[in-house]
Amino acid sequence: MVGLMGWGVSEQGWRKGPWTPEEDKLLTEYVRLHGEGRWSCVARSAELNRSGKSCRLRWVNYLRPGLKKGQITPQEEGIIIELHALWGNKWSTIARYLPGRTDNEIKNYWRTHFKKKAKPSQKQEKRKTQLQLDQQKQEKQENDMNMNKLVSPHIAEVSNEKITERQDEQEMVSMYPTNTMEDQWLPKMYQNVASWSDTITEDGLWGGLWNLQDDPYRMSQTSDCNKIHPQSGASTAYLCGADTLNLYNGGYIF
DNA sequence: AAATTACGCAACCGCAAATTG
DNA sequence: GCAATTTGCGGTTGCGTAATT
After folding, report:
1. What average pLDDT does this structure show over A139-167?
2. According to its UniProt record, where is this protein mainly located (predicted)?
């Protein structure tokens, strides 16, 4: 995507900037053999000359199996809207409900699509308004067809009308509970699905469904250096098995 | 066709929490 | 119990590309 111009090397001597295919290969191979976690160890051992932080980020956001590469679907958008309304900028928490999507991706999506932008010129505004009207028409149709059956009326309302007029994010965040209540305050859409609440546990979110023990990559971890880090195990849940994918259709359980 | 603007995304930074020795 | 280290998260930035003027 980008050359190395303007990036270079950190003070600690770690390489910075865009990853090369060779580096990706090295990291992928290392994780395949030793599993995730212990990123500082990865950085030292894999001859990558990248900081552990950088390795983790690259793996989580780009190389990890099971990541969805395509556009955010209307269904996923609905989930993002609803969950953001509940939890604010808790991107990693929101990402747990969108299999294959990363917090970074969701964060970027929100920023580019929903966050209040600086006031454009009148000319631009006029043009944008027209575009938005067309888009909203189309989205409304799609939403009516695809979502209203599954999602609470609340979501449809938000996605069609409220987003562009949304107040400052901080304001919105303060309207909703965060942290302590986040796992209990599940979106209405989840409540609409029979027995969803039964699958949600206090610390595991969907309990067995998200059980990392089922993850083939984590299962394959053997090296001492790469023993599972309790922290990452608890907070970074994702799916990559075919079985789990069967349960989803754009982020919804059927 | 060239210049400008807007958008999308990858990657970095700083901080806080968790873990380790 | 404490300091050092590691990890994860949220915010921000830099850059390529598409769209518009």
Report:
1. 44
2. nucleus
CB proximity A93–strand C (7 Å threshold): yes
* Strand C–CB A103 distance below 7 A: yes
Closest CA to A187 of A114, A93, A115: A93
Same domain for A78 and A172? yes
Element (H or E) spanning A252, and its range?
strand A252-253
Q: Which residue is nearest to nucleotide C14 (CA to C1')?
A: A6
The Cα A196–Cα A226 span in angstroms is: 34
Structural domain span for residue A96 = 74-178
Clarify whether residues A109 and A37 are in a common domain. no
Residues A26-70 have pLDDT tens digits of 888 888 888 887 787 887 776 778 888 898 889 888 888 888 877
CA neighbor of A39 nearest in space, from A219, A236, A209, A215 = A236
If residue A131 lies in a helix (H) or strand (E), which one and from where to where? helix A122-142
